[in-house]
Specification:
Length: about 300
């Protein structure tokens, strides 16, 4: 059966059209997998509302996705909207736009459901890594912590993300030491909140999801171009993450944009995303992180089985 999954987060909107396998232990067969930076969460941390221009950028991307879904003949469609649309006072405007454009209403899911879908997408097919897994999904507005082995034992979503923290603190180019310190303080506090629910010390493997993690991994590996196959399930050390984070936070926007692995829509927020990953590794004592290209988008697709 062919299905379509859409993940609309604070920073990006992504589409996966895939064929579900007949055997439960077989992988998804990708037909289309793509991502666009629409920055839906622009200004939400400050205003509490979705900006009209952000909704319009999302509508344009979604209209193209809807056409691809129809053309490719997906039988089931599920769209999940996460942090920005949970927080916004005008979320109903966004919901109406999606219904008019896609023909299917978005599910504005809770942080816990977001965490569970991310875990399902991330650990299926993970080989050679020792459980329990701590899956950390670093988004634009929130970060999910999920602990489990075959299923989820505990999960917590906290309000730290690359867009939220950039808008809140990292306003200089490059950021000042004071801005970085304020960001670190917020991240440490958020990890403390996650620890109230998730026993992170029980994890044997840290698995990192989303664009901040995969971009840091690409930089640590020294790739000449963004290569999902090389990044997926690559393991990088805490020292490598620290080196990349320090480099990004001391560079200008122009210098960060020059990396061949850097998506243009991630240039201004990658410093914050890398810092979230580095501080999490420090706080939970993880010596390495396994990057996964499979995440909530894959979890959404599997949920349609």
């Amino acid at each position: 059966m062919r299905v379509a999954a859409i993940d609309c987060g604070t920073n990006s909107i992504r589409l996966l059209v895939a064929d579900l396998p007949s055997q439960s232990d077989a992988p998804l067969v990708d037909v289309v997998r793509e991502m666009r930076i629409v920055r839906l969460g622009q200004g939400v941390d400050r205003t509490g509302r979705l900006a009209a221009e952000a909704i319009e950028r999302t509508r344009v991307a979604l209209a193209d996705y809807a056409e691809q879904i129809r053309t490719l003949g997906a039988e089931r469609v599920r769209m999940v909207a996460t942090s920005a649309s949970r927080d916004a006072s005008n979320a109903d405007d966004f919901r109406r736009m999606v219904l008019d454009t896609l023909g299917t209403a978005p599910e504005v899911i809770s942080g816990d459901e977001e965490a569970r879908l991310s875990f399902a997408g991330a650990v299926r097919g993970l080989r050679g890594a020792e459980p329990p897994y701590l899956v950390v999904d670093i988004g634009g507005g929130s970060t999910e912590f999920v602990l489990g082995t075959d299923g989820v034992d505990a999960a917590r979503s906290v309000d730290i993300g690359c867009v939220r923290l950039t808008e809140r603190h990292l306003r200089s180019d490059p950021p000042t030491l004071a801005e970085i310190a304020a960001t670190e303080k917020d991240i440490v506090a958020a990890v403390g909140l996650a620890r109230e629910t998730v026993a992170v010390e029980k994890a044997r493997t840290l698995v990192g999801l989303a664009g901040s993690v995969t971009t840091v991994t690409a930089l640590a590996l020294g790739l000449d171009a963004y290569d999902p196959a090389a990044i997926h399930h690559a393991r990088i050390s805490r020292a490598q993450v620290a080196e990349v984070t320090e480099r990004l936070l001391t560079q200008t926007r122009e210098q960060r944009a020059a990396y061949p692995v850097m998506h243009p829509g991630r240039v201004d927020v990658i410093g914050a995303g890398a810092l979230v990953l580095r501080v999490i590794m420090d706080e939970v004592g993880a010596e390495s992180v396994v990057a996964s290209e499979h995440d909530i988008l894959d979890g959404i697709a599997w949920s349609l089985a």
